[in-house]
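Final report, closing paragraph on structural work. Over the funding period we assembled a curated collection of sequence-structure pairs, and we close with a single example.
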Amino acid sequence: MHSSKKTVLKACLALALGALAGAAGAAGLGREQIMAFIAQPAPEPLPAAGAVLHQADMPLVRQLLPPGYAEEFDFPDLEMEIQATAHYQPHQTYRDATGKFAGQAKLGADGTLENYTSGQPFSAAQIEAATPDQAGLMIAWNRVYRWQYFGWQTDLITMNYLRPTSDGRPGKLNEGHEGGGYVDRFVTQSYHRVYLNHLAMRPEKDYRLKASNSDVRHFKDYMEFFEPYDVAGTRFIVERALDTHEEDQVSSFLPSQRRVRRLSAQERADNFMGADMNMDDFEGFSGRVLDWSWTYLGKRQLLHVTDAKGPTSTFFGPMSRVPKERWQVRPAYAVEIKSKWEGHPYASKIIFFDTETWNCISALAFNRKGEVWRMFSAIYSMTPNVGDPSVPIEQSVPRWNATIAIDRLNASATVARANKPTLTPTMTEPQTESIFNVSKLTEGRR
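Its predicted structure, as stored:
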């Protein structure tokens, strides 16, 4: 055989073996690789504002996205527009409350947040001075009580369940998805969350929205499903208690049963409406702090869509689940959480929280074999000059655009995408009574 042909064959064989090794490595990606990534120093220099990263820049991308998730971006048409890292201040009322109550919040012996009124519970200096377990809990409570105004709502979310096509060619996709794969199923819904307590903008009202149960509830969620036909009319109200030891109250109305039923705490760990995530995975972490143990792992610079191009996002790539967006390099706290319920499907999660907005940049869930099973990231948009007194308070909150949930081991993904702009409306007591009333679940809002 001609030597040049031998060389080509050897190169092809090496590429094939490399691909197989990469596939095997992907299946067996574990905690050690993620911990090694967290320990790495940030690349120098960081990508500059205005740069566009392509597939040739994957060595840099791999230094700024967690292992497993970074590989999602390794495709020929990759374009990652880099935006200047911005400084986002919460609204002045939140900053005032943070200053007023600085140093008062404490951690109880079991991790409970004590003596907290409003604002950010813990400072960066307190986090850095604490033990890893204490620091992890401080980060958790800062996340829970980040600046959210009265909460957010959107009239239309589509959860697209993405699967690979058998022949590799693009299949049927919904609005906002461009690339490979196909939508095997989709679910549409509305969503609204209202916060009832610790409201920085209501010092004259004891930092409360005085609606039903606001003396014992932190927030309430309302969800209503519209399609497909087998879930149309299904509604949920989730109530999170102020008592951090009390389980969530989740009430659902199922049209087929024509009655309201209560969901158990364990059902929160099930796949939500068949998606590649459970109720606590939404926005990376939406669960109860004391259901988990928390350990601070360190800080890391990561790429994240913190300020999307518009109120709705577009996805591309081999499976139509990579954000076609602009990215910032954001500082993040890395924490590891482990469920205190032995029956939880996750052995643990490693979550990266933005040190300023407290939004989830990325999260990795491990199965009981210690493999990275699922990966999550949430996308947000920001009002320009947020934190400036001239910006209306209703526009001072990071607005959710989408959540990406990827099941690495089963070649599936769910992208929950806002089809209409997310709003952070001013809420009144009568509005809250009308919308978040379990006795009205049978009626719906649409």
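The radius of gyration is 22 Å. Residues 92-149+159-184+277-422 form one domain. We thank the funder for supporting this effort.
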